[in-house]
């Protein structure tokens, strides 16, 4: 008898539920900046990626409305057919000017950008060397491209060098997150670029969490590290995090963009993003680039959070960015802490394996320029009650069952 696919899928769901790792999308009834309504209760949100507080910015909302009034909703076709509009062209221009690259190409999401880029650059002869903590889309992209995937321990430049040395003579792409999505630390980009330069490998940086947040005028981790186009030739970032929109782009040389235009299948065979969205993202770039006060405010909130968290003995990581994980290790304990925080009016989702490595379940706290000092203090107060080492020791053994 042939095994039934839907039955085995259901069995895997049940297995995940037994392991306490089942996920559910929860429906927010409303969101007003960092205040969201969930099951009728207002919560202070500390888990969005809206680092600069732009997702509901009135000028960006106005830009999408005005563009939609003028050109409607759908792009009606892929870019190479007749979907490429003036709004897309302007956004590409704004993005390469901001990041200091010659050219840029838009994708509908970061996932698609990574998939299309690796698939265009790599084939079965190719090798893709990656940090173990890279975003899932980079790992999947290398696998789907059919390249040999080699993963080095987090931020270990020497190990990356050894992996490259093991595949001399083969084309190699070294890919890393600029700012790591679950840890918030920054990759050693100068060292990685040096390694690639000496070795003849190509460096690709996924700056989903760096663009807008770090670097001069928010130009991202690659510019923070002072890497020019030939040193970090493939720069990918998304419009869905600090820019508060959705979509993504790859920036680099005109030759890179020409190649992706011809060979990135996730660019060629998909409907272009709505032009009105491109207009909104263009306005978001203008604000993100021009308003340094948002980054300064964010930095001050990060410092306040870290100082307060250290004072109450929370296990903090090395991050100086908006992503401030509190690793509690055990998934059940992390879920219990997240529920207790929610009962105290603070929303911080529990991040569990396989999103993060086994044994490193965490509360992924994210800060935003839309938070105020008193919001951070309220978060710290709630964490003091639920997630300090002494409180956690008290919840050892069976996970907290009660909600709240
Ligand atoms: C979010 C994210 C992506 C995917 O981007 P989407 O636009 O959400 O598909 C890719 N890489 C990293 C590092 C991310 O954090």
Which labels suit this protein?
17% strand; alpha/beta; disordered C terminus; Aspartate Aminotransferase, domain 1; Aspartate Aminotransferase, domain 2; 404 residues; binds pyridoxal-5'-phosphate; seven-stranded mixed β-sheet
Notes on the structure:
This protein has helices spanning 5-18, 58-71, 79-83, 86-99, 110-121, 136-145, 157-165, 189-199, 221-224, 254-263, 265-268, 275-290, 292-311, 331-343, 373-386, 389-394; strands at 28-32, 35-38, 41-45, 103-107, 127-131, 148-152, 172-177, 202-206, 234-238, 248-252, 323-329, 346-347, 350-351, 361-366. It is an alpha/beta fold and 404 residues long. The protein has 2 domains: 28-52 and 292-394, Aspartate Aminotransferase, domain 1; 58-290, Aspartate Aminotransferase, domain 2. The protein binds pyridoxal-5'-phosphate. The site of pyridoxal-5'-phosphate has 13 residues, from helix 5.
Provide a brief overview of the structure.
44% of the residues lie in helices and 17% in strands. It is of the alpha/beta class and 404 residues long.
Helices and strands in order:
Blueprint: H1 5-18, E1 28-32, E2 35-38, E3 41-45, H2 58-71, H3 79-83, H4 86-99, E4 103-107, H5 110-121, E5 127-131, H6 136-145, E6 148-152, H7 157-165, E7 172-177, H8 189-199, E8 202-206, H9 221-224, E9 234-238, E10 248-252, H10 254-263, H11 265-268, H12 275-290, H13 292-311, E11 323-329, H14 331-343, E12 346-347, E13 350-351, E14 361-366, H15 373-386, H16 389-394
Parallel strand pairs: 3-12, 5-6, 5-7, 7-8, 8-9
Antiparallel strand pairs: 1-2, 2-3, 4-10, 9-10, 11-14, 13-14
The structure holds pyridoxal-5'-phosphate.
